[in-house]
Amino acid sequence: MPLASPIVRLTDIRRQYGRGGGATLALQDIKLEIAEGAFVKVVGTSGSGKTTLLNVIGGLDTGYSGTAVVDGLDLRSMNDRALSRFRNQTVGFVFQHFHLLDHLDALQNVTLASFFAGREEADPLRRAEEVLVRVGLKDKLHSVPGQLSGGQKQRVAVARALFNRPRLILADEPTGNLDTRTSGQIIGLFELLNDEDGITLIAVTHEDHLFRRATAAVRLEDGRVVEAGPA
Amino acid sequence: MNARKLGRFVGQNLRRNRRSFVFAGIGIVVGISSFVFFIGLGSGVQRVVSTEIFPMEANRIQVVPRMVQFDDASGGRVIDEAALAEFKRIPGVAAVYPRMKLAVPSTMAMVGSRIAPEEIERISRMPGVKPEWLVAVRDFNSWLEIMADGIDPRLVKNDALFGKFEDPPAGQPIPILLSKRLVELYNSSFSRSRNLPPVNDILIPYMPALPWTVNDSFVSEAQVHGDKVHTHVRLVGTSHYALLGGITMPLDTVRKLNRSLRGERAAGLYDLAVLEAVSADRLTAIQQSVRAMGFDIDLSQKRMAESIGFAVTLVIMGFTLISLVMVGIAAVNIAHTFFMLISERRREIGLLRAVGATRRDVRAMVLGEAALVGGFGGAVGVAAGVAACLLADVLAVRLLPEFPFKPDHFFSYPWWMFVGGVGAAIVFCVAGAFAPASRAAGLDPASTLSGR
Asked: What is the pLDDT of residues A128-174, one digit of tens each?
């Protein structure tokens, strides 16, 4: 049954890499709706299309056919400027490899999005400090990535995703580079953001068992959704 | 992304990649310093040509009687008092300075042994006098038939530095001016080879009065009618308006001599008039009026200056082109460096796109870095070029032998050279970085973030 006001609605999404005989079909016939405020885990084997699905929802990949509507916006109809603004204002990304800039400290990494923000944050450093405190890095504000553990780096990445108050956080294997204990802490942080701030969370993972409090699960196989529903 | 944020971002990137950019910028520094050196040298030579060798003030023209005249209808006229009055009435003319030729031949017999003892004593008091100068002056023997003209003293008021340039009372030496070009040639070759004292601002006041005979000729007695006039002349300065192969004296003196030796008509005809405009932009209209009145404009000085200036410009342009080719090659190096850096920063660019950077932002960041590298490289290049100019200037002045019109400074530093140096560096760097910037802007964020 269709959701009344889904934050994500994918219709007949098909994504193919390459052409001719060497073409790879990463996603096919994807129909998916995600309710606002949901905590969704996307699981599946390697190469099943999880990251591609996340890139489509996040507006990083526009080379698909079908319709992807996120937060009421049809992503494929948007130009580069509008799509960039969407990524800046609506979505926060968390990656497996953190993707922090080594020459910047935690505060500067978190304020990165403020360089491109359409709406000006009155005091970007104050906001960055606020989100870093929120993720438990009060004492690491001026540490560069080389001085941080894996878990701390991922917390900085989460803080960076939170900086512009997104409605949706997309996490691609956020615990893939972390030990079990640290993974638990990061997932706990996601649960907190979902519970307290109502942020919609979509996390791609191999470690299905760690995301016990996800409200919904999507299983992909060979680019198709084979299972979607409550976790 | 606004300019302030872009500047901060670009600054951060430059700091962390400074080593790469320093190496990439070396070519820019070398090229721009060469550019500055050749422009400085060219401007310096042009300055000497236009101010020392063939000077002509921008707001003055020289009017002469029309040289070629087919019939009376062509309107050719002589320059007389009526013509001078008409020149003064031309709109835009601020002043008219007439020049009159001495209508009779004259001679100068410079015999050292005839110089009065008090004049020799005067020479011996010259600052830095050499004993051989005194010997050479005493032994000097020269008989010259010399041309003379008279000029409006107002035109040369800044040149007659060592005496009043006006018709003298009877019995006093006539003040004369020599051509700066003639003096330069004398100083740089003739005086040196014959151990004679040079003619310069320090020594002119010590020069003796020389005998001058008017209405006298060594060449043709047929031109001489009437009595000879024996008098003396004394050098009071040098001027660009003085006769190149003769002596120039106050207009009233020549007018008086012409009247007494050739009659009233000779005392009222001028061979040239310098017209001074209220501003240089009025000259074209004034020239048209003068031509319409039946006179010509003497452009020989201007044309000579332009011809030499053109030749100098051509040579300097060749060298400047070479220096710009060097900057161009440096720009290729810049392009290579940026391609390399963008390849290293693929994931970072992907991340910036993920947090909201547009393709335009990414392109602006790369081009901004290139512009800053160009700006720094250009500034250092300009500084290095000026330093090279100063060093070369000192060495040239000290080591090069004397030659006519050898300047005190071989280089000039026009303001546009500094702006052009830095500007060219920025333009070349930005041009070099354009292809890498386009590639960076076109990177697919999804594939760069996943490492594909």
From this structure: 998 899 888 889 899 999 999 888 998 899 899 888 889 999 999 88
Do B183 and B48 reside in the same domain of the chain?
A: no
Looking at the fold, whether B141 and B281 belong to one and the same domain comes out as yes
Neighbours of A192 (CB within 10 A): 13
Are residues A99 and B348, on separate chains, in Cβ contact within 8 Å?
A: yes
| Average pLDDT of the segment spanning B319-331 | 87
Whole-number pLDDT of residue A119: 66
Check residue B87 and give left, alpha or beta (phi > 0: left; psi -120 to 50: alpha): alpha
Three-state DSSP string of B109-141: EEEHHHCCHHHHHHHHCCCCCCHHHHHHHHHCE
User: How far away is chain A from the Cα of B436, in angstroms, using its nearest Cα?
Assistant: 19
Q: Which residues of chain B make contact with A101, given a CB cutoff of 8 A?
A: 348, 351
Predicted local distance difference test score (pLDDT) of residue B131: 81
- Whether residue B318 is found in the same domain as residue B210: no
For the stretch A61-116, pLDDT in tens is: 988 999 999 999 999 999 999 999 999 999 999 998 889 998 899 999 999 888 88
Among A60, A81, A104, select the one facing B358 at the smallest CB separation: A81
Cα–Cα separations (whole angstroms), residue B403 to A189, B189, B239, B408? 86, 7, 19, 12
pLDDT at B74 over 60: no
Q: Which amino acid is present at A227?
A: E
User: Pick from B247, B244, B240, B243: which is nearest to B51 by CA?
Assistant: B240
Q: How far apart are CA B57 and CA A27, in angstroms?
A: 81
Domain housing A59: 37-63+79-230
- CA A217 distance to own-chain centroid: 15
**Boundary (domain end) residue, out of B271, B293, B315:** B293
Is A48 a member of any domain? yes
Structure-block tokens of residue B430: 């930005």
Specify if B124 maps to a domain: yes
Count of the separate structural domains present in chain A: 1
- The pTM assigned to this predicted structure is 0.71
Is A69 contained in some domain? no
Q: What are phi and psi of B54, to 5 degrees?
A: -125, 70
A93 touches chain B (CB under 8 A): yes
ipTM: 0.92
Q: Residues 129 to 188 of A: which have CB under 8 A from any B CB?
A: 160, 164
Instruction: Note whether B12 contacts A85, CB cutoff 8 Å.
Output: no
Contact across the interface for A60 and B354, Cβ inside 8 Å: yes
- CA B46 from centroid of its chain's CA atoms: 5
Q: Residue B62: count other Cβ atoms within 10 Å of its Cβ.
A: 19
Assess whether B253 and B321 both reside in one domain. no
Q: What is the domain extent for residue B309?
A: 3-54+304-449
Per-residue pLDDT of A167-204, as tens digits, reads: 999 999 888 877 888 888 888 888 888 888 889 999 99
Mention every residue, 6+ apart, whose C-beta is less than 8 A from residue B240: B55, B159, B179, B180, B181
Whether residues B148 and B245 fall in one domain? yes
Report how many domains make up chain B.
2
